[in-house]
């Protein structure tokens, strides 16, 4: 039997509700699925936390599962601490070499500022750059998963994408929505003639909610329409509307109320009544694709607590709901299983170009909002790629049954839904973190000048080295 892969977890902050807990803890404890708990086939052996939350649970998870916590990203990837002398100028300093087989990069949640466009400035590019520094210094790379969109900055996102290509890094990114249960089951065949499409969803009403949850809506849309006839060729223009302008755009046919009704009907978590009455602060993202497709992502806080999708195909409406059976435990369980598959095979489950394109679209949409809801042309978003052919692991999909077979389980085995982490809210008292109270920044950095994305992705190999899943 081959040796189990060693994984490093690089996270911003680790508390009960954090994505670090929702993802890393499943790699330690097991992946909850609709058919029971699936045991991990890889081992998280090291962790770096950028900030220590007042109610941290990461240190407790690390102790319980034998995960060593390191003071730097370099150390977590090389499994080698710095010397007792000056860092890194001591005579006995050693940089070490890459000693893990995969990296979880969870740059979501934490005490970071937001900018004037209401975008939280998570240090995802900085963390990825540190990881790539170890890769380049070691002369070899390992698969990396980066949670949610690549960055708040298109320049940073394209730097990450190009750096991954340069170093031949198998690279996956995104959230759990594309691998959430769809009811009814809907996966467009590759080459489907989609005439128009709409995604419907919600946001939480905190300061940067539209940025954070807007990504989910765009990603749920993109994972469906990327399978259309001609493949993905990019986005030509976007516009964000809010308030009464959203309803007016629906009345005038800018977005389809028929498609919205079809998608909303399949969302399980919603309020009774009309969306116009329940949602005083709606938003809509209008997307003009380069091939002429028009799509919209409708955001309805106060009316919905879930997501749905609909499209017009050959004159008829096809729709599905993205319904999280088992709550966040199952949603992140399936996300973790897909990331684990990449760690084991070295092949991403779906193309990172999807996340790159959505990252750029979200930046442009937040810019549209900042400039007074104007239309923004996006010639930089000429991101061309092909969708996966082999399906990822998600409930109701072919990949789910294949995963259970490899894990030695049958559909229906297991104890059912697992709520693994609720007890952590009362664990890890003050003696489990350093003397400082509150969140403490781990490392300062200078992001410096970012390279611009001045060339086209169109025309490049659509199955770039280590980035897109093969046939």
Please outline what is shown here.
The protein is of the alpha/beta class. The protein contains twelve helices and 16 strands.
What can you tell me about this protein's structure?
The protein is α/β, with parallel strands linked by helices and 471 residues long. It has 2 domains: 281 residues, Rossmann fold, CATH 3.40.50; 142 residues, Dihydrodipicolinate Reductase, domain 2, CATH 3.30.360. It contains 12 helices and 16 strands. It has an 8-stranded mixed β-sheet, sandwiched between helices. Strand 12 and strand 13 form a beta hairpin. Helix 1 crosses helix 10, helix 4 runs parallel beside helix 5 and helix 5 runs antiparallel to helix 11. It is globular, with a radius of gyration of 22 Å. The two termini are 27 Å apart.
Topology:
Elements: E1 5-11, H1 19-29, E2 31-33, E3 36-38, E4 42-49, H2 58-65, E5 68-69, H3 73-78, E6 102-106, H4 124-138, E7 144-147, H5 154-166, E8 171-174, E9 182-183, E10 194-201, H6 209-225, E11 235-242, H7 244-251, H8 257-264, H9 275-278, E12 283-289, E13 294-299, E14 307-313, E15 316-322, H10 327-345, H11 352-370, E16 376-377, H12 398-406
Parallel strand pairs: 1-4, 1-6, 4-5, 6-7, 7-8, 10-13
Antiparallel strand pairs: 2-3, 9-15, 10-14, 11-12, 11-16, 12-13, 14-15
Helix pairs in contact: 1-10, 4-5, 5-11, 6-11
Taken together, the total number of domains comes to 2
What would you call the structural class? alpha/beta
Strand order of the largest sheet: 9-15-14-10-13-12-11-16
The overall strand count is 16
Proportion of beta-strand residues: 15-25%
Q: Could you describe the largest sheet, including whether it forms a barrel?
A: 8 strands, mixed
Rounded to an integer in angstroms, the radius of gyration calculated over CA atoms is 22 Å
Assign the CATH topology of the largest domain: Rossmann fold
- Indicate the CATH architecture of the largest domain: 3-Layer(aba) Sandwich
The first-to-last residue Cα distance is: 27 Å
Question: Can you tell me the CATH class of the largest domain?
Answer: Alpha Beta
Helical fraction: 25-40%
Classified in CATH, the superfamily of the largest domain is NAD(P)-binding Rossmann-like Domain
């Amino acid at each position: 039997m081959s040796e189990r892969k060693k994984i490093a977890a690089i996270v911003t902050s680790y508390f009960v509700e954090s994505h670090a807990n929702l993802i890393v803890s499943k790699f330690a404890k097991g992946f909850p699925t609709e058919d029971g708990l699936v045991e991990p086939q890889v081992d998280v052996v090291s962790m770096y936390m950028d900030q220590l939350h007042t109610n941290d649970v990461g240190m407790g998870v690390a102790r319980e599962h034998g995960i060593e916590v390191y003071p730097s990203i370099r150390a977590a990837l090389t499994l080698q601490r710095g010397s007792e002398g000056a860092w890194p100028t001591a005579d006995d300093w050693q940089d070490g070499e890459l000693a893990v087989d995969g990296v979880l990069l969870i740059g979501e949640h934490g005490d970071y500022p937001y900018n004037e466009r209401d975008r939280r400035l998570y240090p995802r590019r900085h963390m990825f750059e540190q990881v790539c520094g170890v890769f380049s210094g070691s002369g070899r790379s390992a698969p990396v998963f980066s949670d949610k969109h690549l960055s708040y900055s298109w320049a940073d996102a394209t730097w990450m994408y190009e750096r991954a290509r340069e170093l031949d890094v198998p690279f996956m990114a995104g959230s759990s929505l594309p691998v959430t249960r769809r009811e009814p089951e809907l996966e467009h065949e590759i080459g489907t003639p989609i005439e128009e499409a709409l995604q419907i969803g919600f946001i939480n009403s905190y300061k940067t909610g539209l940025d954070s949850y807007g990504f989910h809506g765009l990603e749920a849309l993109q994972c469906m329409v990327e399978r259309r006839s001609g493949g993905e060729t990019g986005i030509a223009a976007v516009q964000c509307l809010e308030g009464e302008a959203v309803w007016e755009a629906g009345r005038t046919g800018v977005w389809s109320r028929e498609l919205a009704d079809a998608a909303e009907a399949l969302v399980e978590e919603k309020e009774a009544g009309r969306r116009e009455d329940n949602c005083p602060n709606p938003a809509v993202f209008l997307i003009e694709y380069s091939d002429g497709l028009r799509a919209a992502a409708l955001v309805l806080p106060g009316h919905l607590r879930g997501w749905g999708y609909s499209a017009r195909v050959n004159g008829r409406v096809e729709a599905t709901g993205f319904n999280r059976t088992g709550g966040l435990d199952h949603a992140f369980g399936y996300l973790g299983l897909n990331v684990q598959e990449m760690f084991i095979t070295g092949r991403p489950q779906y193309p990172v170009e999807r996340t790159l394109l959505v990252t750029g679209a979200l930046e442009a949409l937040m810019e549209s909002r900042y400039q007074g809801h104007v239309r923004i042309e996006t010639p930089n978003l000429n991101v061309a790629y092909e969708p996966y052919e082999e399906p990822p692991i998600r409930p109701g999909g072919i990949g789910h049954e294949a995963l259970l077979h490899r894990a030695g389980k049958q559909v229906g085995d297991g104890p059912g839904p697992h709520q693994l982490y609720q007890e952590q809210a009362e664990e890890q008292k003050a003696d489990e973190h350093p003397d400082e109270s509150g969140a403490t920044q781990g490392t300062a950095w200078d992001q410096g000048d970012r390279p611009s994305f001045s060339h086209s992705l169109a025309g490049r190999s659509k199955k770039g080295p280590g980035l897109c899943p093969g046939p």
